[in-house]
Amino acid sequence: MISIIASDMDGTLLNNEMVVSDFNANAIRQAQQRGVHFIVSTGRRYSEAQPLLAAQGITAPLITLNGAEVYDASGKMLDMVPITKSVARTIFHTLNSQGYYFEVVATDGIYSNSKAKRIEQIAHLLTNLNPDTSFKVAVTLASARLELMDINYVEHYNDLLDDPKMHIMKIIAFSQAGPAKLKPLSTELLAKHSSIKITSSSASNIEINNVNAQKGIAVERYANMLNTPMSNVMAIGDNNNDVSMLKLAGVSYAMGNATTEVKQLAQRNTDTNVNDGVGKAILEVLAQQ
């Protein structure tokens, strides 16, 4: 009997227009009406994720920043697992010395040290999601979208470490060369720091968190709060940063657009994110109980 459903957001619950479809929203509501707890587990910040649920009238707990933060349905923070500042400082040095563009997610928002690079990364994301969109058009769209996003620009990331009230929750490094460059970088960082976990939400990035800030760990903590065994938890995802929760869940679904690793790991497959794969998986499970 499934009591908790945990779903990733990008590439999973969201379609390529970055919204929750009516079909997915209705399936979530059906689950909630039957007493099943629905929780979103995402790499996004709370302020980026919650409005997407609210647009469909959905109220649910949120695991954000890959498990670094956990919020209840009312928006109250239940848990926070930052990267230590000494480790963050060393990671900043490694990334800067090797010429990587990266962004820092802190307790009060996302930080970038280059507006041009920020626009470039969003443009690449848009062209990946919509291959028919030219990069030139994507840059224009990204520039307009930036005005709607809560981005803080700083000259030096180390300045963030000098603020005693600031916590570093996640570091995201980018490379359009993909795994060819990012995999060796991950290996190097992990060899230096046993206190971090590295995942990814696309082929062109790596996401660095505290080793205890993982979706699977956070979902298990949430299940424990409800006295629910992980055998009664269902997880749905599409990418590397979903692996930890797919491994721990009693029932796991891979999206039709998931990576090969996720498809091999998950027990079941569902449709793609543009074809309401989350909603179909939810209804399938509800029909079985």
TrEMBL record:
The family database entries (PROSITE patterns) matched by this protein are listed as: COF_1 (PS01228), COF_2 (PS01229)
Name the keywords, alphabetized: Hydrolase
Q: Name one GO molecular function term.
A: hydrolase activity
Enzyme class (EC, first level): hydrolase
Q: One matching Pfam family, short form?
A: Hydrolase_3
Per its UniProt entry, which superkingdom is the organism in? Bacteria
* Hydrolase found in the keyword field: yes
List, alphabetically, the SUPFAM superfamilies matched.
HAD-like
Q: Which InterPro entries does the annotation name?
A: Cof (IPR000150), HAD-like_sf (IPR036412), HAD-SF_hydro_IIB (IPR006379), HAD_sf (IPR023214)
Per the UniProt record, which EC number(s) apply here?
Answer: 3.1.3.-
Instruction: Quote the protein name from its UniProt record.
Output: Cof-type HAD-IIB family hydrolase
The organism encoding this protein is Lactiplantibacillus modestisalitolerans
